[in-house]
Design brief:
Elements lengths: L11 H5 L1 H29 L9 H20 L3 H27 L4 H24 L6 H7 L19 H21 L17 E2 L2 E2 L15 H8 L11 E5 L20 E6 L4 E5 L5 E5 L3 E3 L1
Antiparallel strand pairs: 1-2, 3-4, 3-7, 4-5, 5-6
Helix pairs in contact: 2-3, 2-5, 3-4, 4-5
Protein name: SH3 domain-containing protein
InterPro entries: SH3-like_dom_sf, SH3_domain, Sho1_SH3
Membrane topology: Multi-pass membrane protein
Length: 300
Amino acid sequence: MPPRGNEGFDFTPILTHYLFLFTSILSIAGWFTAFISQCIVTSSIRNGGRAGTGSLWFAIFLQLFLILGVLYTLATDSISMHRFQISIFGAIAIVFAVEGVTLGVFSPIGAQNAMGAGWFILTLVDILWVLYFTSEEDSLSLHIFNMLGTGGLTPPSRRFGSPNPAGIRSQNSFGGSLNDNMTRSIGGTGAGSIHNQPGGGTGSIGGVDNGPSSPLMAGIGSGNSGAGSNTEAPQQQQPESYAYRAKALYAYTANPEDPNEISFSKGEILEIVDKQGKWWQAKKTDGTSGIAPSNYLQVI
């Protein structure tokens, strides 16, 4: 699934990714439990009670913005854009959530006990979110989380649009132009070919006939017949050998502005000829070849 960017909200990743489905439900339930309990606790203080909330009113709204931020990030498939902010604020929220648990669970007042239970749920959710958003793509934790489903989400290091694989494109462009120049000069079809000279194919140097019977051309082709055949017979192209096979972890749509990229679907098997760098040279089963992002593939 390509990044959605500004194309609107899609809550399918939340519904199909069991980790985020589970934590989203728990976070909403825990937040309302903690919020309502804090209201009751604050009301009891005004009526002469000894219960307190400390700095939890700041924490409850910090937690609310964190929940909304996570839901927005998932609905817009923009994990790579917001993962560091979510991780930082999530770590701060964990500290306040632990304080809320401490103030609530050891109190003899029922409202504070309920507040502590709500903050305990939020603590667990915040820890799971921080673990997910700080995980790199090759880490064990992200692999375990993705066993619960990926939800079609773009991997953490993949930004909107395709990265610029300049090195691969430059090498392809250079290789193509070099092969074209060699074909023009050696294959006998370019302007610099000795077989494409004016004058019926015989050519001349300084007005002197350079045909097969001329003194200048007398020794060419007579000593080694194999050398002469190399310039006339087309060279056989060696088939590419693919040393690796990879399975697509996610669906990928090629950038229309880059003809070197290829599109593939999730679970598709690709042949890999070169897996150096972040972009691999791959070939699909239908014969289409091009470059593919390595973070979308897994060698099998």
